[in-house]
Write a sequence for this structure.
C-alpha cells in the first residue's frame, strides 16, 4: 500500500504520500494553466498572428508558470526515483 509498508511494523510512508500529493497539486495546476492559455489564445486573443502568435509568446506569464510547474514535477519525480 502507499501509506503502510507490508512489513510487520506498519510504519507510514509519509514522504511518499507527501510526494504524491505534491505531484497531484502541480499536475492539476499545470492543466489549469494550459486551459487558461488555450482560452486566451482561441477566445480572448485579438492581436496579430492568431492563436499561434499567442502560443509563441514566451514572455507571457502562463508560459513562465507552466515551466515552473514542469520543473517542480520533474524534480519531485526524480527525487522519488533516487
Amino acid at each position: 500500500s502507499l501509506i503502510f509498508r507490508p512489513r510487520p511494523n506498519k510504519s507510514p510512508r509519509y514522504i511518499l504520500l507527501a510526494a504524491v500529493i505534491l505531484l497531484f497539486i502541480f499536475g492539476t495546476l499545470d492543466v489549469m494553466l494550459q486551459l487558461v492559455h488555450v482560452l486566451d489564445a482561441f477566445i480572448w486573443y485579438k492581436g496579430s498572428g492568431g492563436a499561434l502568435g499567442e502560443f509563441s509568446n514566451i514572455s507571457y506569464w502562463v508560459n513562465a508558470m507552466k515551466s515552473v510547474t514542469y520543473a517542480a514535477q520533474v524534480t519531485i519525480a526524480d527525487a522519488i526515483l533516487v
Notes: The chain has a mean pLDDT of 87. The CA atoms of residues 21 and 82 lie 18 Å apart.
